[in-house]
Q: What sequence folds into this?
């Protein structure tokens, strides 16, 4: 009334003048990125992939292209296909993460970066070689095992707490070291041990046999026996 | 061949001008010295206005940023100080567009016509003691007259652009400028009456007590009127960016746009300087006479800050409300102020026609009371009020739903 | 407090009482009325105090290849009830249906959208133009045969 | 003497700074007064309904994010409710609470934008908008914590939500609620009683309740017209039958009331969120449904929610296949625009922008 509220408004803006800005200056500072952030580059573990192409089928835009070698050219053990092409057209990707949701073997993860800007559209396609060679910083989107949950049921057992976050479970995809394929699976989950992720059985370039470097098959037997 | 400036010349009081004139006059004919000294001072003034405009764009953007809890431009130079230069370079390298169907001559003339009055206005401003280029004895009148050229330029811009938004902006700008000229002139009459002079230098010297304390009502009316004439918030209808894109300068780009922006922000600076001179005591301040320029800058800065602060806080009024505000609120206030000041000057002035500091203080106290009463009486426009208590409404469409209503 | 859904049977009975023969069919949620009677039925459902369906939630069209279904979802704010009535239009070319614009102004853009995307022309609508696509666009994209 | 005036037609939009996106309206002015209005849509038409017929039921969730991009969570919720109705299933209670909670957070975010842009259109140079964005930023951060994205969330799935909240979500939510109370009071002090805002909006463009109902207007606009109709009350979905809140309504039906109703709804949303936090119980968050859903042939469902803009509904028809046979989106923004002629004609250019802001349209939803 009589401009008093206008003076009150002036005081509000004056108060904010003395306050620290809430924006951050991007290249120097970065916003805190949460572990579930659906980043641009995909993280793919060839050792876990069976070439089932669930991700390609489930992609709403159909931007994942998978070609496998014909069946019979590979050793039949584990029923795996060898992948020859795994292209993800990032330019059309909307990062919904449904491919990750569809992957039954924890082989595909969302990445955690967001700086894949390119000058040419050609470069916006992630190829299988890039996926193989990239540093692997997987996001925890749809992968609760990375958030420190020990089992499916564990995530439902808690009540919301007022206390501060539990630092034991803080996983920082970007800041931490890259994760290998043995560290990201759900093998430690009790129910998951019975249906192990498809492990890759193949001679690698050095000629050593990587077979059996997954979780020890004997564990499963013991578990079943128990 | 030495030249001496006549002591009754309007340029006589200006020390810089006189020194340049006399030194140059030693070697060159007097009329050349006259021109060279004028050009030297004009150079200073043009740069003062344009650099001032650059500084104000920077200050406005930084301050608006901080008012809005963000940082503002900070990439170029320390604290983003070179941002205006970067803007200028960007604008200069842009294509100079002229819309199809526009009036070529008028369209091109506008930026010049926008900037020229500002520089003309600075000619009578005393930055410090004895520094006004021309100590005109009708300084106030001169400023009012010259500042009106801007409205012609704005209308030219709107008309020649062949754009309906620009036309809207121009029509609004002219309407606003015409209505606000009157309260501004009336509010200045009070100042002139107390100072008993129209010369800005004399007005500064008369301010033993700054006039915004002596005549708060005139200060308020002048600030509001100048906000409107400058198209500043909350009266920025002429270039209301959310309604009519950019108003009259919608079609301007490149270097012409740069000049129009310079005129706008330079206008803020010049008007702030005039306000500081007329109401805040100009260059007068404590300590040394030679620090006058500093006091002047500080006072100008305060006024500029006020303009930016209002812009950060207030929404815009509608054009008819702006007119109503001028005619129904500011004009009566200016009249009240004029009558009050006339009576006070008539009663308080001594036989020698001089008002002492005590007289000014008495006037200030009386005028403060007058201000409060006048705003309370004429404050119809700003009396809108809603109660913020909520209540359970009586007749609702769907019974049984807990509902609250504003009273 | 929950909304009471008027069953198709009740709706069909009420409409049939007012306009005999207007209802073609009904199931548990909705009643089908003759396309020619849409406007009359709509006016009745809106104005009769028993129903009082003042609020038209949405008008949809569904392409079943042999025929189109126009679906009207209604709500009564006073009665706190909702109802659905449909109209079945056979054919694929030059389809016409009466507009409910005069009953519920809210059908304005939705009917235009149906004309634009499904190709059912509403007669009695004052501004039956394309809404999403431009005039001169060939075909109606939401039809099943539009590729 | 009467001055002869000539009507002038101006295209406002689709590149106008304050038509909320690519909305275009062809307006005939007499001076500054509006005599004729013709809205033109379709500049953002992406054919969402047709696209939905090509995708399976879960993939459509990603399309709903892009309808009203300022309230994606609520769009997710509406679509998931429709699919659940189609399947005849009900999500587990914890999922219901999580949905309610996130939908209310999203409503706050959306209303902050609505209020911010409303005042921006009144001419306040970005300050209330930035204050709104300041709080909205925190909400988006919470969403990133929940589901890895800020705008295109895709958080909900038919049969629940995709995953439970992470461990640090709850403390962060509580911190947000504490800070938001303070920040929101600041916005109220700045805006609610501001005289300029009041003279600009009081009594401008009123929509009487009869006209609002006949024009199928919904959401805050309908409530500002004095009709206390809220689908969260009338047809409680998810956990809304477990929480208490009031329905704010307007008494003058004008722009100010629409603005005020949004402010009050933010308060009510906070109330709901606090009750959700208190009531939520541990448990599963997603039904064990297959990735590819196949509802029975011939079923149809009309799932609606009270979105931030109004009644958002998905009308799904199934033919037994893996994708919806028909997915009609009842978009509140488009249908609220029906009232545009009543809203604008007779008012001034400056009011037109503000009135458009007061209905709070979102072009992603208008054009779909």
A:
């Amino acid at each position: 009334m009589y401009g008093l509220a206008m003076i009150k408004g002036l005081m509000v803006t004056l108060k904010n003048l003395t306050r620290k800005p809430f924006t951050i200056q991007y290249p120097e500072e970065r916003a805190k990125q949460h572990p579930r952030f659906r980043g641009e580059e995909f993280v793919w573990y060839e050792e876990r992939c069976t070439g089932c192409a669930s991700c390609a089928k489930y992609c709403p835009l159909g931007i994942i292209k998978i070609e496998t070698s014909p069946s019979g050219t590979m050793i039949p053990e584990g029923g795996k296909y060898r992948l020859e092409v795994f292209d993800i057209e990032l330019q059309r990707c909307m990062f919904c993460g449904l491919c990750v949701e569809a992957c039954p073997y924890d082989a595909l993860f969302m990445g955690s970066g967001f700086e894949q800007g390119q000058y040419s559209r050609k470069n916006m396609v992630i190829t299988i070689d890039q996926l193989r060679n990239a540093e692997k910083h997987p996001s925890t989107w749809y992968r609760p095992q990375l958030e420190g949950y020990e089992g499916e049921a564990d995530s439902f057992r808690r009540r919301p707490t007022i206390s501060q976050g539990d630092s034991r479970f803080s996983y920082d995809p970007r800041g931490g070291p890259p994760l290998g394929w043995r560290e990201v699976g759900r093998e430690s989950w009790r129910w998951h041990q019975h249906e192990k992720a498809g492990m890759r059985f193949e001679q690698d370039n050095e000629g050593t046999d990587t077979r059996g470097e997954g979780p020890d098959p004997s564990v499963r037997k013991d578990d079943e026996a128990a | 061949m030495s030249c001496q400036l006549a002591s009754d010349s309007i340029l006589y009081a200006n020390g810089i001008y006189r020194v340049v004139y006399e030194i140059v006059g030693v070697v060159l004919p007097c009329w050349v010295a006259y021109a060279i000294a004028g050009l030297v001072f004009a150079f200073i003034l043009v740069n003062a206005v344009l650099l001032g405009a650059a500084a104000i764009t920077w200050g406005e953007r930084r301050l608006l940023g901080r008012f809005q809890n963000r940082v503002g431009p900070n990439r170029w130079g320390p604290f983003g100080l070179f941002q205006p230069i970067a803007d200028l370079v960007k604008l200069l390298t842009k294509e100079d567009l002229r819309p199809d169907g526009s009036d070529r001559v008028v369209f091109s003339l506008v930026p010049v016509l926008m900037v020229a009055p500002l520089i003309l206005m600075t000619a009578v401003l005393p930055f410090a003691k004895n520094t006004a280029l021309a100590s005109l004895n009708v300084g106030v009148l001169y400023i009012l007259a010259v500042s009106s050229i801007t409205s012609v330029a704005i209308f030219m811009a709107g008309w020649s652009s062949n754009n309906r938004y620009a036309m809207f902006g121009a029509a609004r700008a002219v309407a606003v400028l015409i209505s606000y000229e009157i309260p501004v002139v009336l509010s200045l009459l009070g100042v002139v009456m107390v100072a008993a002079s129209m010369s800005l230098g004399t007005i500064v010297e008369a301010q033993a007590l700054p006039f915004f304390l002596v005549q708060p009502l005139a200060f308020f009316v002048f600030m509001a009127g100048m906000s409107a004439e400058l198209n500043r918030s909350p009266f920025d209808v002429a270039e209301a960016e959310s309604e009519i894109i950019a108003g009259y300068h919608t079609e301007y780009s490149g270097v012409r746009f740069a000049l129009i922006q310079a005129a706008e922000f330079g206008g803020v600076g010049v008007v702030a300087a005039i306000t500081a001179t007329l109401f805040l005591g100009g260059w007068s301040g404590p300590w040394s006479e030679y620090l006058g320029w500093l006091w002047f800058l500080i006072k100008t800065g305060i006024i500029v800050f006020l303009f930016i602060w209002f812009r950060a806080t207030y929404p815009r009024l509608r054009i008819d409300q702006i007119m109503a505000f001028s005619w129904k609120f500011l004009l009566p206030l200016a009249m009240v102020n004029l009558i009050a000041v006339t009576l006070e000057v008539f009663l308080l002035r001594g036989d020698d026609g001089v008002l002492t500091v005590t007289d000014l203080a008495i006037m200030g106290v009386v005028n403060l009371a007058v201000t409060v009463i006048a705003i309370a009486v004429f404050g119809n426009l700003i009396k809108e009020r809603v109660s913020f208590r909520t209540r359970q409404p009586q007749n609702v469409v769907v019974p049984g739903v807990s509902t609250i209503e504003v009273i | 407090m929950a909304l009471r859904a008027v069953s198709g049977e009740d709706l069909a009975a009420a409409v049939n009482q007012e306009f005999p023969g207007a209802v073609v069919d009904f199931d548990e949620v909705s009643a089908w009325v003759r396309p020619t009677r849409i406007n009359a039925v709509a006016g009745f459902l809106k104005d009769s105090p028993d129903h009082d369906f003042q609020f038209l939630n949405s008008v949809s069209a569904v392409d079943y290849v042999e025929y189109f279904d126009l679906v009207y979802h209604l709500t009564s704010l006073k009665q706190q009830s909702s109802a659905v009535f449909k109209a079945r239009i056979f054919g694929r070319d030059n389809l016409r249906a009466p507009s409910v614009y005069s009953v519920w102004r809210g059908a304005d853009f939705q009917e235009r959208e149906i004309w634009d995307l499904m190709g059912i022309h509403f007669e009695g609508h004052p501004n039956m133009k394309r809404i999403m696509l431009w005039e001169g666009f060939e075909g109606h994209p939401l039809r099943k045969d539009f590729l | 003497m009467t001055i002869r005036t000539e009507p002038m037609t101006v295209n406002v939009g689709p590149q106008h700074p304050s038509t909320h996106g690519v909305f275009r309206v062809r307006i005939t002015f007499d001076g500054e007064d509006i005599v004729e209005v013709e809205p033109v849509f379709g500049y953002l038409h992406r054919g969402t309904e047709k696209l939905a017929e090509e995708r399976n039921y879960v993939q459509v969730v990603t399309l709903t994010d892009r309808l009203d991009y300022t309230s994606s969570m609520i769009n997710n919720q509406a679509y998931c409710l429709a699919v659940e109705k189609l399947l005849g299933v009900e999500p587990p209670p914890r999922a219901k609470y999580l949905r309610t909670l996130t939908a209310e957070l999203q409503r706050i975010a959306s209303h902050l934008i609505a209020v911010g842009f409303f005042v921006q259109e009144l001419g306040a140079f970005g300050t209330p908008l930035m204050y709104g964005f300041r709080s909205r930023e925190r909400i988006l951060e919470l969403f990133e914590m929940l589901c890895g994205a800020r705008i295109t969330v895709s958080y909900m799935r038919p049969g629940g939500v995709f995953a439970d909240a992470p461990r640090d979500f709850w403390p962060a939510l509580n911190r947000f609620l504490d800070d938001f109370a303070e920040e929101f009071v600041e916005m109220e002090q700045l805006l609610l009683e501001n005289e300029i805002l009041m003279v600009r909006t009081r009594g401008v463009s009123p929509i009487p309740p009869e006209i609002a109902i006949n024009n199928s207007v919904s959401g805050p606009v309908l409530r500002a017209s004095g009709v206390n109709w809220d689908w969260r009350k009338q047809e409680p979905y998810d956990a809304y039958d477990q929480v208490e809140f009031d329905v704010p309504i307007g008494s003058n039906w004008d722009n100010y009331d629409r603005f005020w109703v949004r402010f009050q709804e933010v308060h009510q949303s906070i109330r709901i969120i606090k009750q959700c936090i208190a009531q939520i119980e541990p448990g599963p968050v997603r039904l064990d449904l297959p990735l590819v859903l196949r509802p029975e042939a011939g079923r149809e469902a009309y799932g609606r929610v009270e979105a931030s803009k109004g009644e958002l509904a998905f009308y799904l028809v199934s033919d037994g296949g893996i994708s919806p046979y028909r997915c009609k989106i009842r978009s509140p923004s488009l249908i609220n625009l029906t009232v545009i002629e009543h809203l604008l004609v007779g008012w001034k250019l400056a009011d037109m922008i503000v009135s458009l802001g007061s209905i709070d349209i979102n072009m992603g939803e208008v054009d779909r």
